[in-house]
Design brief:
single chain; 164 residues; alpha/beta; Rossmann fold; 3-stranded parallel beta sheet; two-stranded parallel ribbon; globular; binds adenosine-5'-diphosphate
Length: 164
């Protein structure tokens, strides 16, 4: 069985991520979308919210599993018996980081390959950071994220405002 892992923060999942997830799910038997619990990075959405948004927006893909992981990605991949990581590439600015990261992982585990999917042109500007920034100022994110994610974002900002 061909298994791949698509790792990331997904804070929150965007149409850009979903495009990579759909395209890779079509090429493997089982795709694990793995949400990284990063203790060094403050996330806007909790792990539970990120998992929920991913599960809801990938439910049309029967071979996609959404999971959380912390610690080392290579150890997680080993535990899941997986030798293929999939990452998306948007611009040159992504390339340097991804290149170093892929080589480092390969050094640690030579059987672990990283494959890259070029973003679709229409998503090349799209990032979770951009969505979070827009959302903070009440901007319209409907063209950037699926309706379910938009609802979660709006609910979060409403409850944050009422708490303030
Ligand atoms: P990380 O914090 O690990 O970079 P992200 O959630 O930001 O995680 O991204 C996960 C993966 O999705 C990365 O490989 C990233 O390059 C890719 N990605 C994010 N946005 C897009 C997009 N608009 N088009 C293609 N790939 C994307």
């Amino acid at each position: 069985m061909k298994i791949a892992i698509c790792p990331g923060s997904f804070d929150p999942v965007t149409y850009g991520h979903l495009n990579i997830i759909e395209r890779s799910a079509a090429l493997v038997d089982h795709l694990i979308v793995a949400v990284f619990r990063n203790p060094n990075k403050h996330s806007m959405f909790t792990m539970e919210e990120r998992l929920d948004m991913l599960k809801e927006t990938t439910k049309h893909l029967p071979n996609v599993e959404v999971d959380a992981f912390d610690g080392l990605l290579n150890e997680y991949a080993e535990a899941r018996n997986c030798h293929l990581l999939i990452r998306g590439l948007r611009a040159f600015s992504d390339f340097e980081y991804e290149f170093q990261r892929a080589l480092l992982l390969k050094k640690v585990n030579p059987t672990l390959e990283t494959a890259f999917f070029m973003t679709e042109g229409k998503y090349s500007f799209l990032s979770s950071t951009g969505v979070r920034e827009l959302a903070c100022f009440g901007g319209n994110v409907s063209k950037l994220v699926p309706p379910y994610v938009q609802q979660v974002i709006e609910a979060k900002f409403k409850s944050d405002k009422s708490e303030a």
